[in-house]
Amino acid sequence: MSFGFLGLCDELLEAVAEQGYITPSPIQIEAIPVVLSQRDVMAVAHTGTGKTAGFTLPMVQLLSGGPSPQAQCVRALVIAPTRELAAQVADSVQNYSRHMNIRSAAVFGGVRIEPQISQLQDGLDVLVATPGRLIDLYKQQAINFDQLEILVLDEADRMLDLGFIDDIRRIQILLPIKRQTLMFSATFSKEIKSLAKGMLNNPVLIEVAAENSIVDTIKQKIHPVDKERKSEVLIHLIKKNNWHQVLVFSRTKHGADNLVSQLKNAGISAESIHANRTQHARTHALDDFKNGNIVVLVATDIASRGIDVNQLPCVVNFDLPYIPEDYVHRIGRTGRIGTVGLAVSLFSEDESKQLQSIERIIGRKFQCDIIPGFAPSERVSVDSSDDEEYGNFEPDPKPRRRGQSQGRGSRGGKSSNRNRNN
Ligand code: AMP
User: Fold this and answer.
1) H or E element in which residue 205 lies
2) pLDDT tens digits, one per residue of 234-248
3) N or C, where is the chain less crowded by C-beta within 10 Å?
4) Which of 21, 57, 329 to mutate to test the pocket of ligand 1 (most atoms within 8 A of CB)?
C-alpha cells in the first residue's frame, strides 16, 4: 500500500515523500479515507503509530478547498493535553501543508499570550491548543468559532487523566453543532466512550492495536537491583553498551534532577524535563536530546507523553510506574514504526506490586536478568537469570539528527505531578 491510494492530493503526497515516509501506517490507512469522507472518527491509537499524520493530512486537504478564515476565526481546532504535544502537532501541520496555502499556529500556556492574540487576528486555518490557554483566549475575545469546520481531540484519555474534562465541555458548547469531530485516545475506557458519545456524531470506530499491546519491535529487559544502586547500574549500562541516546523515566521531579547530577558527575551528558522546569528549559533539553548534544534525557511521566524522537533506540525505566498503563506508554517511545527498540527497567524489591500490575496488563511474566556485579542483596520474588546480554539488539552507534519534522512532544501521567498550568 502506498500513500497514493489514500486519496491525498499531490501537494500532500509531495510533503509526505519529503518526510521520507514510504508506506502509510495502519492508522493512516484506516483513518485518512474516512476523515476525507467527512465522517466523525473515534480512533484508538497511541503515540508512535503515526496517528498525527493520520488526522492532519486529510484535515488540511479538506480545509484547502474552503474559504479563507476571517478575522479571529479558526477553521480547524486541535485540542491537545500538553504544551509539547500541541507544539509537535502544529509542527506536523506546518510540515505537511508546506506546499499549500494553510495558515496554522499553536497556542499553550507558560508563554506570553499577546503574541498568540496577534497570530489569531487575521484568522487561522488550523489552531492547535491546550485547553486552558484556549479558554483564556476566548475570554479575552481573541478567538471566534463561527467558521469552525473540524474539531480534533488528541490524546483524549490523557486529557481526562489531567482533569481537563470540564474545560473540554466548556469549549464544546462554544463550537458550532454542525462540524466534523475526530477523537484520538490510547485507550477506549468507559469514560472515553461517554465523552465520545457526547461529542461525536455517528462516528466510525478505528482501532489499530489491541489496548495495552506492545509492539513486538521492542525488546524488554528487567534488571533486579538494589534501590540505592540504580544510578550506578544505569551509568554502567550506558558506558558498557555505549548507548548514545537514552530516554530515562523517573517517578519524581526531584529524582530526575538528582539522577542528572549523578550522570553528569560520571561524565555522561544529561538534562531533565519535568513540570518544574520552564517551557524554554524543557524545549531546549528536548532539542539537545534530539540533536545528539546530550546522551540522556530524564523525564517524569507528565513531561514525557508524546516525546517523539525518530527511532529512539533505548528507553529506561529508572523507577517502575505506579500506573501500569504508563509502562506501555513509556516504552512506546522506542520501537517506532519500522525500527527496533530496547526498553530496560530497573526493578527494586519495593516495586514488586508495580511489576505484577504491569505483568497483568501486558499479559505475560517477565524474566528478570541479574547484572553481574549488581545482584540485589534482597531476594527478588520473581523468576531471574544471570543474563545481561542484549541479544541482537544494537543501538545506533550515533544519534540520528532530525530534520525539520515533529518533535516537541510530551505526555502527562497520573503517577506524577499534574500540570494544570497550560
Ligand atoms: P505519531 O504517532 O503521530 O506521534 O508519529 C510517530 C512517528 O512516526 C513520528 O516521528 C512520525 O514522523 C513518524 N511517521 C508517521 N507516519 C509515518 C510513516 N508513514 N512512515 C514512517 N514514519 C512515520
Assistant:
1) strand 204-207
2) 999 999 999 999 999
3) N
4) 21
